[in-house]
Design goal:
This protein has 473 residues and is an alpha/beta fold. The chain has helices spanning 5-18, 31-38, 42-54, 96-104, 123-137, 152-162, 180-191, 206-214, 232-241, 263-275, 333-344, 349-361, 364-389, 415-424, 456-472; strands at 58-61, 65-68, 89-90, 110-111, 175-177, 197-202, 218-225, 229-230, 244-249, 280-283, 308-313, 325-328, 395-396, 404-408, 427-428, 430-431, 445-449. The structure holds pyridoxal-5'-phosphate (PLP).
């Protein structure tokens, strides 16, 4: 039993933190006020707070005071992902993907499933105003098809913003598409034939796996780290063993891990694809949603020979309803333009012009600043809530951008059972099996989207999820 005065005070505060009287992120009483209240010396309180700090329960913020650390119950540990690479095989995505997607569009659920941007930003009103203006002033009806490359004002804006990712290209080198998924589809169709092997990170956004499946391709799943993304060493080994036709990856704030591939790895990735003379499709849809000041360089920024095809869209930064995306296809320009033409001839001009206007002087940067800061805070809150309500062995990724996190449940818990139980309670999550090329993997992991504001009902839903997991153990 603790006999020193500072030890007793430290234990009392620990009890209060565990009981939730002081919440994660909350400021503890100042040293001076606590010393007055307890009638003890300032150095006794400082020693007590020092014990809490040593135990990782509180942190000092200079000139501000002592705060309860964000994950006080169990230290934050990223999910562990098996580092074994499997052999290439046909992809069989679970039927459940479509079930989850169907449910996600129903307002009857509290959804953490679909990766949609937050709905509480003023940008939606700005977009409405821009649409109204463009309808009045720009020619779009009665002008026939848009050009096969897409609307020039949009391509000009995309080229301008690509500079931030370290990519120097002209509007002529960009092709607009009906979203990022569509851009990736065009690339896969242009670059592969049925039976080809695609190297893809694992776990991976199911939309990419579904495309690989639909085109009759084989996937070799390259292990990913929750912080640094696709393993370059594992990719190198895969190249040595298999005739890989294309590499497909989400290097900046991947879905579902939220991992950011370090710039050095991006550079090594380019060296590898050059060595093996293989194209790479870079899904950069979350690239502008980082929480740091500077946007990370794209893999394409290291590409001197045009082998990287960068695909993106405004579905995550602005709004999926816009249906506006693009590809910067490097040396594969003609093939992609041809694929776009045979698939859709062209895409609608109106949303392209509206997005161009938004990027040009519609307050896009202001919106991004707000969205990125909000997502960072919402991520912290999710980590707090999972720390508070999920069983102690739970692990969660700590994305540096985007708005999806990967959670590894304690040993013995089934993600599928949690999905089914949660659905009964009106809560939607994405079970881990959706993110693998075959459903045997990630049976105790889930993905949660944290883009929406933390309302009381969403907080309660996380609590319910934690209770449902605990019930399984
Ligand atoms: C990594 C990734 N790529 C592509 C898409 C689809 O993008 P779009 O809506 O622009 O087709 C998504 C949507 O969730 C995604 O997460």
């Amino acid at each position: 039993m603790e006999t020193t005065l500072y030890g007793k005070i430290a234990n009392q505060i620990i009890g209060q933190i565990r009981a939730g009287i002081f919440k994660p992120g909350e400021k503890l009483p100042s040293v001076r006020s606590l010393s007055r209240k307890r009638s003890v010396s300032i150095s006794t309180i400082l020693t007590a707070y020092g014990i809490l700090e040593d135990q990782g329960l509180v942190e000092v913020r200079p000139k501000s005071g002592y705060y309860v650390r964000r994950v006080p119950v169990h230290e934050h540990r990223p999910p562990a992902i098996s580092q074994r690479t499997s052999v290439p095989r046909k992809v069989a995505t679970p039927q459940r993907v479509m079930e989850v997607m169907r449910d996600s569009s129903s307002p009857q659920f509290i959804s953490f499933a679909a990766a949609l941007p937050g709905t509480d930003f003023p940008v939606i009103h700005q977009l409405k105003r821009i649409f109204a203006r463009v309808i009045r002033s720009a020619p779009f009806l009665g002008i026939g098809y848009d050009s096969p490359k897409g609307s020039e004002p949009l391509r000009r804006q995309v080229a301008r913003r690509a500079l931030d990712a370290g990519i120097l290209c002209s509007p002529e080198e960009i092709i607009t598409t009906a979203g990022c998924q569509s851009a990736i589809g065009l690339c896969l169709r242009a670059l592969t034939s049925a039976g080809d092997i695609i190297a893809v990170e694992t776990p991976c956004y199911y939309g990419l796996l579904q495309q690989i499946e639909a085109y009759g391709l084989k996937a070799i799943e390259i292990p990913s780290d929750a912080e640094r993304g696709m393993s370059i060493d594992a990719l190198r080994l895969a190249f040595e063993q298999w005739p890989i036709k294309v590499v497909l990856s989400i290097p900046s704030y991947s879905n579902p891990l939220g991992a950011l591939m370090p710039s050095q790895h991006k550079q090594q990735l380019v060296s590898l694809i050059e060595q093996y003379d293989v194209p790479m499709i870079e899904d950069d849809i979350y690239g502008e949603l980082g929480y740091q000041d500077r946007r990370p360089p794209a893999v394409k920024s290291f590409d001197r020979h045009g082998r990287v095809l960068l695909c993106s869209s405004t579905s995550k930064t602005l709004e999926p309803q816009l249906g506006v995306g693009w590809v910067i296809p490097g040396r594969y320009q003609e093939q992609i333009e041809y694929q776009k033409f045979i698939n859709s001839v062209s895409i609608s001009r109106l949303p392209q012009l509206a997005v161009a206007e938004m990027l040009d002087h519609g307050g896009y940067d202001r919106h991004l600043r707000l969205a990125r800061e909000s997502y960072r805070q919402r991520r912290d809150r999710l980590i707090d809530l999972v720390g508070q309500y999920f069983p102690g062995e739970t692990r969660i990724s700590r994305p540096q951008g985007g708005f999806v996190a990967w959670i590894q449940l304690p040993r013995g818990a089934s993600a599928l059972q949690l999905y089914l139980d949660a659905r009964e309670e009106g809560i939607l999550i994405s079970p881990g099996e959706l993110f693998s090329a075959n459903s045997g993997k990630y049976q105790s992991s889930i993905r949660l989207t944290y883009s929406d504001a933390w309302t009381a009902s969403r907080i309660e839903a996380v609590k319910t999820l934690g209770e449902l997991v605990a019930r399984q153990l």
